[in-house]
Amino acid sequence: MGAPELVLSVVGTLAGVLGTYFGYLGVRRTRRRPDPDPPAPPPASGAYDVFVAYGDDDRDWVREFARRLSAAGVRVAYDEVVARPGGVRVHSLEQGIRDAAHGLLVFGPTALAGGWVRQEYHALMQRSIETGRLFVPVLVGDVELPGFAATRFAADFRGVDEATYARRLDEIVRALRAS
Questions:
Q1: Which residue of 54, 57, 66, 91 pairs with 76 in a disulfide if CB–CB is 3.0 to 4.6 A?
Q2: What are the residues facing 102 on neighbouring strands?
Q3: What is the dihedral angle through the alpha carbons of 38, 126, 128, 92, rounded to the nearest 10 degrees?
Q4: Considering Cα of 87, then 134, then 106, then 69, what sign does the dihedral take?
Q5: Per-residue model confidence as pLDDT tens digits over 94-133
Q6: SS3 state of residue 104
Q7: How many Å apart are CA 111 and CA 44, to the nearest integer?
Q8: Residue 16 scores a pLDDT above 70
Q9: d(CA 149, CA 107)
Q10: How far is CA 66 from the centre of its chain?
Q11: CATH number attached to the domain at 48-178
């Protein structure tokens, strides 16, 4: 291969590379751009005063607790309130947490054994840290509170009589209204 053939070969290769590059640039401009990130969720709408997270073993206790909070004028959200037939559980729970001004987690012996409750705990914890909203641990069983919950004053309902139950419930109602 002589010099003229070598020059033609190099020029041809260079033309092919440049043609491919500029062709790519043309296609790149017309390709669909990725959608922008979705907007941040809106701040709590105030639909509920408190979201109550709990383990399945504490369901009956929570129903009565929520009934008594509601009787005291507190707008209470928990899974049975925010769930809709055919809805996606995680979306309903997230929306309930977003729509509540504050969070409360009922700590029974198996509360954090369930994956959903752990997720609710983390969401409530993060929200409390970022926004300063109340996070109230409620003790109904002999449990060791996890790190973040242990930094908060807990409402202890373990083995209480009716008068003490009513007093502790009133303390929670006052704390929710004061914040």
A1: 66
A2: 50
A3: 60
A4: negative
A5: 899 999 999 999 999 988 887 888 999 999 999 999 988 9
A6: strand
A7: 25
A8: no
A9: 10
A10: 21
A11: 3.40.50.10140
Please report how the helices 59-71 and 162-178 are oriented relative to each other, as an axis angle in degrees rounded to 10: 60
Unique residue bearing structure tokens 């709408």? 45
CB 139 within 8 Å of CB 155: yes
Structural contact between residues 51 and 100, judged by C-beta atoms closer than 8 angstroms: yes
Structure confidence by residue, pLDDT tens digits, 45-92: 579 999 999 999 999 999 999 999 999 999 999 998 888 878 788 888
- Predicted pLDDT of residue 57: 93
Q: Tokens for 80, please give them.
A: 């049975």
* 165 Cβ contact partners less than 8 Å away, ≥ 6 residues apart: 157
- For 134, half-sphere exposure in the C-beta direction (CA atoms, 13 angstrom radius) is 24
